[in-house]
Every structure is written in structure tokens, then in C-alpha cells.
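Continuing from the previous page...

OK, I double-checked the sequence for Mycothiol synthase against my notes and this is the correct one:
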Amino acid sequence: MHEHSGPADVRASVGADETTIAAARRIAAEAESFDGTPPISDQALLEAAQGRRTLVLFSEPDADGESEPAPVAAGIVGEDEIDLVVTPDARGRGIGRTALTALLSRPEAGPGALRSWAHGDNPAAEALLTGAGFTPVRSLFRMALDPALLPDQATDPSALEAPEGFELLAFDPEHAERDAAAWVSANADAFSDHPQQGRITVDDFNLMRAEPWFDPADLLLLWKTPVEDDAELAGSTWVKTVRAEGHVETELYAVGVRPAFGGRGIGRFLLAATLARMAQHAPERVTLYVDGENTRAVELYERAGFTIDSRSRQWERPAQWSPGARMEA
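Thanks. Re-ran it with the corrected sequence; updated C-alpha cells here:
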């Protein structure tokens, strides 16, 4: 969430067709370029495109009141979460406060607990959330690694020595149905206590595969041997590689180990495989996101050379809260 507080004259339009999704992505990209942190999660956008969350675009009326102005803010509400982002050049005019009030008044916000993120160092957004009855409940660290610390580019992840009884293979498009189902099942197991990551469905996964950044070789699956149609997936690691204007960035998108396979060094092995795969892309930037409260994971990444680059906080509004009960400046 990114904005400053104050009233504003704002129009809202609801919909999630290709045009509105593209507009939301544009707004998010502008904010990320300015702020240095993604303002809306991939999961929120995917579920909005599926109709599982509601996308609302906000615009300021033109002076003549006749022409159709370009949207300057995007909000997504549903699945007990709310996301809001305002373009950098439209901030400070109260658009965020007005948009947040509108989103909280929608039926999709519901009477139950509602969560939202303030990304990076963002006192204005945190003040806005505080005024709307939210309190911080969780932290998220973005960690970065100096690309010079990556292993040699010639290191093939599949050539690394896997823990005994396991084999590392890249996602296989020829066995897409098997691999997709196995990944979704293992991911749900690994993230059973995670409000977003653990509920990804096969449909969600297939939408992510359709993203322009997806590369099957970047999704590494650790199978219990022998690898057959009914083989069990013990864990996986997924690298998100983004190329833009000649620059390459790699992010550890998702890494997880089934609890039943814990204590066997699989997490350390998957991290080594991740770094080997990242090195093959020769990136200029290497990042990952991790729960701030997950001390063991943070320490594992620090031992590999990662340092904390930014901190975000998730905020929660308690159940049965009324939008009119408290909306302070």
C-alpha cells in the first residue's frame, strides 16, 4: 500500500478484463520503479483476473468532466485481503485515503479480519492503515545478494549431489499435469500456515506458468526416487527471472520443503541449487522475500551471503470493524 492521507474527488470503476488488469499492472510497475518494492503481490493480481478478488481502478475527473481520465490508483479486495497502490505523481492529494475508504465499504471486504501490506519504509501508508483501524501483525524481509557471490555460471543445478534417495529435475512441460499437481500438493504442505502461498491451486499455477517471465528450467523439483508417475515431491525451488531493457534480475520466488522430509538438509540443498540456477542467468540483481519471524530461514540466507535490503509489514483490521467506526487523519 502506497499513499498519503486527505480527501479527494475520485471516480471508481470495477472490472477485471484484459484492459483493466493491464492498467493495474502499469500502475504497480510505476510505483515499483519509484519505490523500489512491488506494491501488489502476483497472487492478488492472478486472483483478480480469475474473478476471485475484485479489482477497482480509481481516477480523478478531468476539469471538463467529459473526457475519460487514466486511472491513477488500483485497489484489489477479497480473500480477506486488501491491496492499494497510487501512482507516484498522484500522491499527496488524498487519493489513497478516499480509495481505501471505498474499498473497505465494498461487500468483498466482509465483516471478518482483513489484512493489508505496507511495503518498504512507508510511514504515510502505515499512518493511513492505522487511521483505518489496522495494526501490524507480521513482517516481511526482502534480502539481496551481491551477484559476485553466486557460484560459477558453469555449475549445473542438476549436477549437484542431492540428498540420498532424491533426484532434482526441472519442471517438465511434457509431464506438465503431473508436475503441476505434485508442486501444488507439496506447496500446500510446505506452506500450510501461510495465508497466501499455501492456498495456490492448479489453476493459479497454470496462470503463473503463462506469465512472460516463466521458464520451466527455473522451477526445480526434488523428487523422492524412483521418479515415476506416482512419485512424491519432497520440495522445490522456483526462480523468477525478469529481463527488461538489457537488465537481468533473479528472485527466489518460492522454495519449500514438505514437513515430512525436514531435517535431511533438503533446504540447504535447494538453496544451493537456486544459486546455481541464478548464476546461469548472470543477473545484475539477486533477491528473495522471507517472513521476518522465520529466524531459521533468515539465518540460512545470511550464511549464504544475503543481507536485509528492505522491511515490509502486514497489517490487520479486526473482525466486525465498521468503516465508519474509525477513520482518522
